[in-house]
Amino acid sequence: MPFFTHLGRRLGQDLPSGCEYVALNTTEVAATEKELVKFLGTPHGRALDASNDENISRDFLGPVRSALKKGRALHAQVS
User: Fold this and answer.
1) Contact 49, 55 (CB under 8 A)
2) What angle do CA 41, 22, 38 make, to 5 degrees?
3) Cα–Cα distances in angstroms (integers) from residue 69 to residues 55, 65, 66, in the given order
4) Considering just the CA atoms, what is the radius of gyration of the chain in Å?
5) Which is the most buried residue in 7, 13, 33, 78, by most CB within 10 A?
6) How far is the C-alpha of 16 from the C-alpha of 65, rounded, in Å?
7) How far apart (Å, rounded) are the C-alpha atoms in residues 76 and 24?
8) Banded pLDDT at 1 (limits 50, 70, 90)
């Protein structure tokens, strides 16, 4: 399930939930990194990132890559 389609997921669950956080295991962190890179490689993704002070690449992709490099799970607040 693509990350940008649904917000709010609990660790290891396939379906989105009404929570305001996301918890990803290490496999999901790797998949999210690939999805973010793909999204930011599109004209829409680049424009959205640029119009938001590069928050997606700096504040989202950065921590995802840090967790991936450390082999760690990731918890993030959605709201």
Assistant:
1) yes
2) 10
3) 20, 6, 5
4) 12
5) 33
6) 23
7) 9
8) very low
